[in-house]
Design brief:
The complex is a heterodimer of chains A (293) and B (436). Chain A has a single domain, classed as MetI-like fold, CATH 1.10.3720. In chain A, 72% of the residues lie in helices and 2% in strands. Chain A has twelve helices and two strands, in the order H-E-E-H-H-H-H-H-H-H-H-H-H-H. In chain A, helix 8 packs across helix 9 and helix 11 runs antiparallel to helix 12. The radius of gyration of chain A is 23 Å and the shape is globular. Chain B has 436 residues and is an alpha/beta fold. In chain B, strands 1, 2, 3, 4, 5 and 11 form a six-stranded mixed β-sheet that branches. A five-stranded mixed β-sheet of chain B has the order 8-7-9-6-10. The radius of gyration of chain B is 22 Å and the shape is globular. Classes of the chains: A mainly alpha (293), B alpha/beta (436). Chains A and B meet through helix 11 of A and helix 3, helix 19 and helix 20 of B.
Amino acid sequence: MEKRVKFRGWLLPLLLIAPQVAVSAVFFFYPAGQAIWQSLFIPDPFGLSMKWVGLGNFEYLLSDRYYRASFVTTALFSILVTLSSMIPALFLAVTADRLIKGSGVYRTLLIWPYAVAPAVAGVLWLFMFNTRVGVVSWYLGQLGYDWNHVLNGGEAMGLVVVASSWGRISYNFLFFFAALQAVPRSVIEAAAIDGAHFWRRFWTIVLPLLSPTTFFLLVVNIVYSFFETFGVIHTITAGGPQQTTTILVYKVFSDGFVGQDLGSSAAQSVILLVVVGLLTVVQFKFIEKRVHY
Amino acid sequence: MQRSILGALAVSTILSPAAAMAQTEVQFWHAFTGRLGELVATQVEEFNASQDEYVVVQNYKGNYSETLNAGIAAFRAGEQPDILMVFEVGTATMMAAQGATKPVYEVMAESGADFDPSAYIGAVKGYYTTTEGQMLSLPFNSSTPVLWVNRDAFEAAGVDPDTDLSTWQNVGDTLDALKAGGSECPLVTAWQSWIHLENFSAYHDVPFASLDNGFGGLETELMLNGEAQVAHLTALGEWAQEGKFIYTGRRNEGGANFRAGECALFTESSAGYAGISAEAEFDFDVRPLPYWEGVGNAPQNTIIGGASLWVMEGQEPEEYAGVAAFLNYLSSSEVQAQWHQDTGYLPITTAAGEATRMAGFYEDNPGTDVAVIQMTANEPTANSKGLRLGSFDQIRGIIDEELEAIWAGDKTAQEAMDSAKERGDVLLRRFEAANR
């Protein structure tokens, strides 16, 4: 049964939503509008002149095969980051949930990596895998594997994925753990009495009950891998080698702040806006249908 | 100890507001931290102490790209500094921004300071002057690539460290010998595009871009896929495949390997001197950058890297007078000679170079004059005056990507450079469109 509050008149409801509207307007609608406006021009960096090009910036971008390749890189990167941060998190949450003693300590320790800023996480992983002084690359060398993410695109991608997922596992763990605690014990006990072993109970009862959380995390993690992984990529690979780790957001930065090409940069952020908007629509339309609340 | 800090604080809080009120403040944004940052701070303090009309306030704004961005953002917000340090790669961007910058020759003329552009070394000055010879920004720190030799690594590999390394032909043979002698890292480089393409082209007197490397206009196109460049990169690519040239990254990551004594040869800026002399626990030599015997007009002269000081538009006249006084102070022979000796950057005036020679510095520190000689050996040609290309920071990024494809063996040098030209030209056309 739905609960509804009825307001008399318009003033109070308007007042109540005003702060949210103001925040959205200042921090979202205004900058987004500016980006759309700017994407129609080629301005000079100092803002001294602007040349109207209509959709020229978009035409330029979409005809650039390196820009199109960046879509594939971004898709691959965000799928990998989402999977490698959600699956281990779920596994850890399930194991932590079964603990009887010491789960508090375990939980606290697992949350720590989330406190590390992406750029710092990037530097940490870079140190471990540094081709010259890295601990991990040294061990790999002992095993006969020549680690070189400076030239090997696959290794570079692997490294930025791991560095981006690492802190994220903690975040996902928190949500999964809380959701697991909310699974009614009675259902699980009933299944256990019926003879369902642990993994069967997990697949048929726990996982479906977790689906709202999983769906929420899916959306949040994809958005994370699109936007917030910038720090990791900037510190570890700067988009290289060649362009193997240049995701869309990194290209916005490098065109805008390295190349001072604000028109192209603005057009790219508009494209990103559309892509993320579409992704969210797709997720809510198709995936959410399969989610059991 | 504690008391002296408190004392210093008290003195500075008492003095500074009073001083600021009486004096005109000149804001100076730069990109130097660490040892170089300290040296800049000293220069500023000494200038402030030398007169009482102006106070220069120096601020570190991040690396070169970040400092340029900070300056641009500040200008858009109307909060620009008086003096902005911009790396040589940003020169075309700054030159195109008429209305945002005030040419140095104008600042100097208005202040009535006596300013003689011909006092500056040609190859340094050329980078920052118009084709009519008017100086737009003041050269501040300029360096040029040289070859660093780890003598101990040579001996460990059983190779004579005094062997002739003036040509790449000889270096190639030496790399074979070093590799055969067990060297894990015969050759490493910093700033690959700057050294192995931009300087390479100037040194062999072949064009890097059309219209005199962009000095002649915005319609310039890259020409880095020429025969000479491709031949050089092909050789480097083969050395990379054979483990004789080790690639460590796009910036100066290789410096760590060299300073730790792992590598025998290192192509790096002459300004690497401060770091190498401080950290290296081995005997090292500085040699001129090698050239290919019989290619182009090698050895012509190498070009500079580093930064210059741009004066921003939109300030009060008295601030410009302060700017002129400070820039004049910076280019005085004593300040320049000291800077050159402390950092390994080139002296920007002929007089500063002479003063250093007279003081016997080059005899006490052999090799520190290699860069000066290499830069000034010949009168610069249209191909060796420098580069003036828009969006060049980003074009360098493209070049880096394509070079990585060569080192990894994914592309031939010709394919990679053809692609670099194609991609770079697109950016040049956009820069042209933005600044016409």
